[in-house]
Structures are given as structure tokens and as C-alpha cells.
Amino acid sequence: MGLDATKEALCQKAWDGGRVSADEAASLYELPLPQLGALADRRRRLAKADDYDGRGNDIATYIVDRNINYTNVCNVYCKFCAFWRTEKQDDSYVITHDEIDQKIEETIALGGTQILMQGGHHPKLGKQWYLDLLSHIRDRFPQINVHGFSPSEFIHFCDVFDEPLEPLIRDFRDAGLGSIPGGGGEILVDAVRQSISPLKAMSDDWLEVMAVAHRLGMASTATMMFGHVETLGQRIEHLERVRRQQDETGGFTAFIAWTFQAENTRLKAQEAGASEYLRMQALSRIYLDNIPNIQSSWVTQGLEVGQIALRYGANDIGSIMIEENVVSEAGTTFRMGVADMRRLIEGLGYEARQRDNWYRLVDDQAAAA
Ligand code: SF4
Q: Are 67 and 53 contacting, i.e. CB atoms less than 8 angstroms apart?
């Protein structure tokens, strides 16, 4: 079945690199999947053409890092989360410096360059605990980037420490925080957040943390967790808010979308499958014309889908994820090593290259050192 003239014109606009509106995005979402994927692949090519000395479209990247959840104590009780514990539960924990040293040493032994450090919203840990942890890591492992503390954690810190956001983020940065992950983005529409995580930072708060971080010169990522209670219109509203923020402050290095995993959680919802995931990722590449990198999510979708997502707008396959407690508690336990990751990338005809948090190629830096 052919497309009508309006849709043909829209596809041409997307192919040519034009900015699409929310209504146009909803229309693109209805395209046959291979066609939407081809448009996203084209947009990836436009976005990456000048990178890596003009080789941006020959290369797909990955990062070696470790997810460290510094505590599982949390008083936010998100319905989609199976990770949180109360302080009184036997298996609650707060990480020690010795434990974190061991995890970072293992990460470095595997060629890692970064830790992704996030945790529950602990009601009692004080500011100095976090600053001590950061400066300990910086002093002991100066080569490791700490990509840590999601916006909802920072909003929680403002409440617990009774401090404004900007000096707080500055103090964390000065103690060793390198960049901020987009965790807790979920869907940046308050009606959705009220439904799935009513005690967590709302949309404006999440975006404000990112705006402040970007103004302080810190890079961050934007994320989306979808496939639960939200509508397509709300997903597109999420993309719109991320795009607008990026127009204003420009610090998002990458966008990462993944699907809700239901097992062991209290949220009853139909999980999104592979084709819906690919469709949404492709649309994200087209819509987010000001974010250079789209990362696929093999952790929730499995290795094959994570691989094929590189033909649906993604240019990066993410991390080997030495540890991922939140998703694995919810029943998703895909594992991948560096060799697997390189094989998946090369299987699609790309050159596999390790990158750091800022998407610089790691071996290029080593050669330049
Ligand atoms: S997702 Fe994060 S904030 Fe929500 S309950 Fe789990 S640990 Fe707490």
C-alpha cells in the first residue's frame, strides 16, 4: 500500500533532516517498521557523518563501565521497581569504601573507564558521606569517570540536606563527580509520574537538575522508560521536553530508551516487545535532532534486538554492564562481555570501538597520550 501525498512529504522532510513536530512524530510512528527504521538510519548518518574524522558512520561504539548501586535503601517506592528496601530489612545495604574499591579495581581490570553510580533515596545519609565517597574515588582512581546521581537523587539531596540545587551540584562536581546520568527520567509527563512513582521528582524538577548541571559545564544523558501506563502522545511529549531542554542548555551527550520490565514489581502493565522498542527508538532518533548519540538497550531487550537497533537509529550499544541490580531484580538477566559486544557490532558491518562518557574513542586517547 502506497503512502498518501502528505505522508510522502513528511517522510521526505524526515529524510532531509528537517525538524518534526509532535503531530508529525505521531504520524511517522504509524509507518511500516522497516520504513521508519530506514528514516532513523538516515538520520543517524546525517548526525554522525562528521564525527571521528569523517568515519562516524563506519563506527559503532560501546563503553566498558560498571553500574554501582551504593545503597538499596529507598523511601520512594516506585511501582516499577523491585530493588528498594527499607533500612530495617535484612538485605538492605550501604556500600563501604573497601567494597567500592574492589568493584572499581575489577572494572579497571576489564578495561573500564567509568562507573555509573546511582542508589536508592536514602533518608539518612548526610552530604559529607557522598562528598567523602566521591573524593575517595577521585583520589584513588583518577582515571575513572564517576557518572553518578540521577536528577531525582539530587532533588532528594536538596530536601534532606536543606540546600539549593546549584551549590549542591557544584560541591559534588568539585568532590569528583564527572557527569550525570539521566536515570529516573521515565516519562517526563507529571500525570504518568503521579501514577507510577508519585513520591519521585516531577518533570520540571528532573529537567531543572539537568539545566543546572549543563550550565555548570557538566555533561549528562537523557533517558526514557516506556511501555507501562503512558500513551504514545505522552512519549512524544517526553521527547519534546528533552529536545527543548537540549536547545536551551545543550549538555545531553546521548539519549537512551528502554522498556519497562514487570517481573517482581507492583506495576501491572503490558511490557513493550521488540518491534515497539525499535519503533520508539527510531522515532527518538528522528525527533531528537539535537542529540548526537542514541544508545540501544540490549539489557532489557536482549542481545539480538540491541544489535539490530544499530540499524534503527542507534550508533552506540551501551555498556557491558558488569552489574545492573535494578533491572536484574525485575527479572532481566541478559549478560554480555566485550568480545560479544564487538561481535554484535561487527556482525552489522561496523567497526567496533570503545568510547568514554564523552564519546571519545578510548584507543585514540591512549595513542595520543
Ligand atoms: S527506582 Fe530508584 S527511586 Fe524508585 S524505588 Fe527504586 S531505587 Fe527508589
A: no
CA distance 222 to 266: 25
Tell me if 76 CB under 6 Å of ligand 1: yes
pLDDT one-digit tens code per residue, 151-179: 999 999 999 999 999 999 999 999 999 99
Walk me through the domains of the chain, giving residue ranges and CATH numbers.
21-368 (3.20.20.70)
Q: Which atom of ligand 1 is nearest to the CA of 153?
A: 3
Strands 316-319 and 351-354: unpaired
What tens digit of pLDDT does each residue of 91-119 get?
Answer: 999 999 999 999 999 889 888 999 999 99
Evaluate whether 229 touches 195 at the Cβ level (below 8 Å): yes
Query: 313-344, pLDDT tens digit by residue?
Result: 999 999 876 654 545 555 554 556 788 889 99
Our answer on whether the CB atom of 74 is closer than 6 Å to any ligand 1 atom is yes
- Closest ligand 1 atom, residue 119 Cα: 7
Please tell me whether residue 2 adopts helix, strand or coil conformation. coil
C-alpha distances in Å from residue 227, one per residue of 190, 224, 300: 16, 10, 12
Q: Report whether residue 235 contacts ligand 1, using a CB cutoff of 6 Å.
A: no
Ligand 1, atom 4: nearest CA belongs to which residue? 78
**Would you say the CB of residue 121 lies under 6 angstroms from ligand 1?**
yes
pLDDT tens digits along 220-243: 999 999 999 999 999 999 999 999
**∠ CA 61-212-210, rounded to 5°:** 40
The minimum-distance atom of ligand 1 relative to the CA of 81 is 6
Is 200 touching ligand 1 by the criterion CB < 6 Å? Answer: yes
Q: Determine contact, residues 282/98, Cβ cutoff 8 Å.
A: no
Q: How far is the CA of 81 from the centre of ligand 1 (A)?
A: 6
- What pTM did the predictor assign? 0.92
Percent of the chain with pLDDT over 90: 77
- For a mutational test of ligand 1's pocket, the pick from 70, 71, 74, i.e. the residue with the most ligand atoms closer than 8 A to its C-beta, is 74
State how far the Cα of 188 lies from the Cα of 223, in Å rounded to an integer.
10
